[in-house]
Each structure stands twice: as structure tokens, then as C-alpha cells.
Write a structure and sequence with these properties.
The chain is α+β, with helices and mostly antiparallel strands. It is built from five helices and 15 strands.
Length: 311
């Protein structure tokens, strides 16, 4: 009842399981209405990830960090059984006693350079993702108090964006094929049939959704682990650490992930064996903490993961 009151423009009938728009049963009600929902008042999303990343860069530079853009890592040198830095395509070597692989969709390529793939029970792969952009109907804009709404009944999520826009993405239901990309530099960013599939599904829930004749979307890659849970860990190469497999669900956790990795690195460099004595990351605002073995490269893939961008 509260969902209907907050969003009167939503059709709350059940349509699941999610289907593609060319399925003969697409759009056929499954009977009854959705049972309800969960509301997270302290949840949220980052509406301008490029600006957010820029802000993080400026904050890091204020602490002494330096950035090198538009350069490519060609090799991970090893000296005395330990990582020695990174070698760029120009031949220049940036020497460092600690290297963190946070290369996103290129993380597997970097891990292969470092020779650490065989020591990982959980692997990562680049996955093509397409986010559809449409005009938001009244009641779903930022100005109207629109929220990010995850909807497993139709296999989509949607959220408002600046300029009265609405972003629509897939929950990776069984009907949507996963498009794995071997070479992340070869990604085709043109809209595909996936745009139509997720927009039509969203129109079941939002009958006032105006579907334009010309597709507009953002296409890029997620770095997805076997269970869609990130790897925050050491590797089998001393001094070489992993912050990979973050898919699309860890961006707003970036600052906390940095704090976790800093603590984990200090833990390991002080002589602790992360595999046998995992670092416990303390929570800043609440009691307790988290055992970082949950993010181990050697863990068994979680059976409790949603196996989606929602983690």
C-alpha cells in the first residue's frame, strides 16, 4: 500500500518471471500484485561518477598522491621474489614496494602480467553492460523524490538522473544473455537489442513511460567476479595486492574500499599471513567490523549472492 501511495504511476501487477520482449508470453500478468518492498532511507547512488572520481583525485592529491594518465602498463617487474613496481610501454619503470591492482575490467590482464592467476580460486571477467536513458515520467524524477527501484519481478532496476532523465538497467535475469568481452579495448558501445528488452520490461511497471524511436544508452564494462562479490586481498606475489571484481556495485564504496585495502596492506606488510590470519576491518560509525576473508581470492563462490549488479 505504501508503494502505491508513494508511486501511484506504477503498475504493481506481477509479471514474473522476466521475459524478453519477443517472448509470446511477454507482458502477460502472472496473477496478483507484488507482495511489497523494502525501503532503505539511507541508501543512494552517485549521479555523476566522473565528477565523483575527479573529487577523489583532488582529495588524494591533497594527501600527496600523483596521477599518470594516458599511459599503459606493459609489465609487472619482480625482484627477489617480490613485486618491484610497474613498467610502462615507454620503458619507464615506476618502482614501488607495493602495487595494488585496481584496473577494473583490465584486472585479469594485469593479474596475468603479475603471474598470480593460478593462485586465485575466484576469477574476474569483463562484462558488457548497457544502461538505457529515457525521459522520466512525472512522479519518478529527482525533483519528485524519485528513488532507485530494484525490481526483480521484471528483472530491472531504474533510477532518476539529472535533467528529468530515467536510467534503466538489467538485473541479469535468466532471459538476458550475459555478454562477456575477452578484450576490454574492443568494446562496442553502440546500443543493442538489450536496450529494447529492458525498456519494454520497464514499461510494464511504468505504463506512462514514453519510449523514443532512437535508442540512447551508456555502454561500458563491469569487472565481474565469479559470484559478483569483490576481491580485496593479497596475491601469491608478495607486495602485489588485489582490489578487483567490483562489478558495478562498489563505486560508492570506493573510499571505504581504500581504507579497507590500506588496513589489509599494513596488516600483511607487518608480517601477518592474510590467508591464515585475515585482517578484520573495523567499522567507523558502528560497533564491530568485517572479516576480510569474505573477499578472499581463494574463497568458495558465495551461494548467497544475488549474482547481479546489486551484489
Amino acid at each position: 500500500d505504501r508503494v502505491a501511495e508513494r508511486f501511484p504511476g506504477l503498475d504493481l501487477r506481477r509479471f514474473g518471471p522476466p521475459r524478453r520482449h519477443d517472448d509470446p508470453d511477454f507482458g502477460t500478468p502472472a496473477g496478483g500484485e507484488i507482495a511489497g518492498g523494502y525501503f532503505f532511507p539511507d541508501g543512494g547512488f552517485v549521479t555523476d561518477p566522473q565528477l565523483a572520481a575527479h573529487n577523489l583525485q583532488i582529495a588524494a592529491e591533497a594527501k600527496g598522491a600523483r596521477f599518470r594518465f594516458n599511459v599503459r602498463v606493459a609489465d609487472i617487474p619482480v625482484e627477489g621474489g617480490r613485486v618491484a613496481g610497474v613498467t610502462l610501454e615507454s620503458g619507464e619503470t615506476l618502482r614501488a614496494p607495493v602495487v595494488v591492482n585496481a584496473a577494473g575490467p583490465h584486472s585479469t590482464i594485469v593479474n596475468r602480467m603479475a603471474g598470480v592467476l593460478d593462485g586465485m580460486a575466484i576469477q574476474t571477467r569483463p562484462l558488457r553492460q548497457e544502461i538505457s536513458t529515457l525521459r522520466a515520467p512525472a512522479g519518478l524524477t529527482l525533483a519528485d523524490g524519485g528513488l532507485m527501484i530494484a525490481d526483480t519481478d521484471i528483472g530491472n532496476y531504474m533510477r532518476p538522473e539529472v535533467g528529468d532523465a530515467l536510467l534503466i538497467g538489467s538485473h541479469e535475469p535468466d532471459c538476458d544473455p550475459l555478454v562477456w568481452i575477452d578484450d576490454p579495448d574492443s568494446l562496442d558501445r553502440s546500443p543493442s537489442d538489450q536496450w529494447t528488452a529492458q525498456v519494454y520490461r520497464q514499461a510494464l511497471r511504468v505504463p506512462d513511460l514514453a519510449i523514443p524511436n532512437q535508442a540512447s544508452s551508456v555502454v561500458d564494462l563491469y569487472d565481474v567476479s565469479d559470484d559478483w562479490i569483490p576481491i580485496y586481498d593479497k596475491s601469491d606475489l608478495p607486495g602485489f595486492y588485489l582490489a578487483v571484481g567490483t562489478s558495478g556495485n562498489q563505486f560508492k564504496n570506493g573510499p571505504v574500499a581504500g581504507q579497507l585495502m590500506a588496513g589489509l596492506i599494513e596488516h600483511c606488510e607487518a608480517g601477518h599471513d592474510q590467508d591464515e590470519e585475515p585482517y578484520r576491518f573495523p567499522f567507523r560509525y558502528t560497533e564491530g567490523g568485517i572479516d576480510t576473508s569474505a573477499f578472499s581470492r581463494r574463497r568458495t563462490a558465495s551461494t548467497e549472492s544475488s549474482m547481479t549488479v546489486m551484489g
